[in-house]
Amino acid sequence: DDRMKPMFIPGRAILTEMGKKVLDSMVNIIIKTPNNITLNGHTDAGGALVNPLYTNWELSADRANAARRFLASTQLQSDRITKVIGFADRELLTPE
Asked: Of the four, 11, 22, 27, 69, which is 20 to 30 A from 76 by CA?
């Protein structure tokens, strides 16, 4: 994920074309292994979304589920996804 090429539309749980490409390339590697996977959703520290009841917690979990739904439409067997977790803005890639 990158500011210039985000995986999700900023502030939303909608995959961008780049996000779909990233997940699609990852699934080609994952299907060759016997491992189950966990999907983690994250947000930036921005917060302050339009609806105060829809926080970074909901957004991060929704992003992880959006990735799960996308992967379910690929060759990946859905039972290999064992966890879907939302981290909100608690584990930032760049703290600033």
From this structure: 11
